[in-house]
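Supplementary Data S3. Sequence and structure tokens for construct A.
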Amino acid sequence: MDKVQVAFVCVHNSCRSQMAEAIARHLAPDVIEPFSAGTDIGDSINPDAVATIRDLYGIDMSTAQRPKTILELPAIDIVVTMGCGVSCPSLAAPRRMDWNLEDPSGKTSEEFIACARTIEEKVKALKGEILALL
């Protein structure tokens, strides 16, 4: 089975989109080929996001991932924006959805955990939708 190319995009590609890439790679490696990207990227992934994903899933995003621009992405089947509204990057794809996640940057570890758990549920639901179409 070919994997579905899913891009998680956000302006800075430093927090929510990076967490979504890691969680999708962890929970749906048989169905989803995940990517993350943005338009105004920084030098590194948010350290609180890195710590959250490491603590919850045992994944070190700081070694496995890096901020990327949307220009670095291959052809994408599904674009998932994280909730950055009109400033979310535009990327062509047959399917587009917005997860409308509040940015936990600068907030408590509990808010990072809640964001990661919400992403986890959304990734599981997306995996189910993809499997139902096969």
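Construct B, processed identically:
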Amino acid sequence: MHRLLVGTATLGAVLLAAAPADARPASKGFFSEAGLGVTGLLPPHQGAVKAGPTVDLQLGYDLFSWLSLSVHVAASSHEATVPPPPEGEWLQLYRADAGGRMGFRIDSVALFAEGGLGAAYISSNLLGKVGITDPGERFGVAFRAGGGLEYQVLNRHYAFGVAGDWLLVPDFDALSAIQARVFLRYTY
């Protein structure tokens, strides 16, 4: 009788361990996301500005498990490589937009596409030397589109991810850039 009880308990433990685990429930609601990365201009303007470090922040709300709306701000710093003078100058590109993210989750991994419409501000008139900006031009309309991959850790509020975005500022001689970043997301 004792062996039958031990055998039954062992078999029960093995079956429980082999049963599929429930998918990790992701939090939904308000979220914040902070990222670090690099931004580089695309041709034909690539030669005027070196790739530089980027920081970004997103604040938003998950309407559904597959759709989020957010406000996104980013800033990148770049060394200008325009013909001298001056030499060794840096400029900053600031961006802000309102947008959304659509995606789907497979257990702890989510794939998403995102985009936004907003504004860009450039901190210097250095790019006027090569025709990217007009004299006195600092502001422009900005479009952002991209996607990425997110991994939800065991704590359902936190996720890490990688993302890439394409940026277009038509007012700055159709300046386009790409940004790659890693991020930490917290859902409240």
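Residues 2-18 form the longest helix (17 residues). The first strand starts at residue 30 and ends at 41.
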